[in-house]
């Protein structure tokens, strides 16, 4: 097989297996259409990257992100945010939001790290078109990252309270919370990007999903490695990384190692082709 097609075909194969397994297990054709759509888009985007087309990742972000937020979230009224995940979990309903979290954010990152953040997140897709692609200063604001864990706990407690109070029309309320939550995420994401001159400031300091993403992605099978003696330590990879990862260090506990979103900017910018995934 053409070597440019190996990874895209492999990714499509993984999604095909997920699609068939869930369709048969849950007896619902939706999962076949949903995962084949996501798998096809991802494979096309990765193929575009492999052949050096710089718009491949943005294409994937917008086609998957808009599908999730508009079709699943707004049209089908499924709360796909963290609040929805907790809500459906408390209800004991194993449906789209819970499956989505299990695959993309809780267990999947052991295989593909924070691929979700780089290719499918509908907050990230907007943040990535802001003007501060790489932060000027790769040092984080001390302790600000703790906010994401506090937001995670607040969302958990908030949904738990609503659930146990048995609030009337809770399904509809969860839909409103989904819309408001997204608007707040976009507002905080855009304002913090401009204040800190860093497109991904929201991901580094505020996003509560990272509470799930970071521990699993520590063990990620897919990760950027410096595999070559040719590395001249020019730091171009670090300077072009939106997430401040030190990819000159191959250890799993490298600086900001669990922040890598697999955008592959480091690989594209390496003049000696020393980085590999
Ligand atoms: S950190 Fe959060 S907001 Fe950023 S891309 Fe990942 S899930 Fe989206
Ligand atoms: S530039 Fe490289 S290390 Fe940084 S987030 Fe992208 S893929 Fe990961």
TrEMBL record:
A Gene Ontology term for the protein's cellular component: plasma membrane
Matching Pfam families: Fer4_10, Fer4_5
Keyword check for Transmembrane: yes
Residues that span the membrane, as ranges: 7-26, 32-51, 58-76, 82-104, 146-166, 172-196
InterPro entries: 4Fe4S_Fe-S-bd, 4Fe4S_Fe_S_CS, Electron_Trans/Redox
Annotated 4Fe-4S ferredoxin-type domain residues: 222-251, 256-277
Keywords carried by this UniProt record: 4Fe-4S, Electron transport, Iron, Iron-sulfur, Membrane, Metal-binding, Transmembrane, Transmembrane helix, Transport
GO molecular function ontology, one term from the record: 4 iron, 4 sulfur cluster binding
PROSITE patterns: 4FE4S_FER_1 (PS00198), 4FE4S_FER_2 (PS51379)
Name of the protein: Putative electron transport protein YccM
Source organism per UniProt: Methanobrevibacter cuticularis
């Amino acid at each position: 097989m053409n070597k440019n097609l190996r990874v895209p075909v492999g990714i499509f194969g993984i999604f095909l297996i997920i699609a068939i397994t869930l369709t048969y297990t849950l007896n619902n054709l939706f999962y076949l259409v949903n995962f084949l759509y996501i798998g096809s888009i991802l494979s096309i985007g990765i193929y575009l990257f492999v052949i050096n087309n710089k718009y491949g990742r943005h294409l994937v972000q917008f086609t998957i992100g808009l599908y999730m937020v508009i079709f699943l979230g707004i049209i089908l009224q499924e709360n796909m945010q963290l609040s929805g995940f907790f809500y459906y979990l408390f209800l004991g309903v194993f449906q789209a939001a819970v499956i989505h979290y299990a695959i993309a954010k809780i267990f999947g990152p052991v295989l593909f790290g924070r691929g979700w953040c780089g290719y499918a997140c509908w907050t990230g897709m907007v943040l990535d078109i802001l003007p501060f692609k790489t932060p000027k200063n790769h040092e984080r604001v001390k302790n600000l990252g703790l906010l994401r864990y506090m937001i995670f706990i607040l969302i958990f407690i908030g949904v738990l309270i609503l659930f146990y109070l048995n609030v009337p029309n809770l399904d509809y309320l969860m839909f409103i919370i989904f819309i408001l939550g997204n608007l707040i995420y976009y507002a905080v994401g855009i304002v913090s990007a401009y204040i800190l001159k860093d497109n991904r400031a929201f991901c580094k300091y505020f996003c509560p999903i990272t509470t799930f993403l970071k521990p699993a992605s520590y063990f990620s099978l897919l990760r950027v490695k410096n595999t070559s003696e040719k590395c001249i330590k020019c730091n171009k990879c670090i300077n072009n990384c939106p997430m401040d990862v030190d990819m000159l260090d191959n250890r799993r506990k490298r600086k900001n190692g669990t922040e890598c979103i697999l955008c592959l900017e480091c690989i594209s910018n390496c003049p000696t082709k020393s980085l590999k995934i």
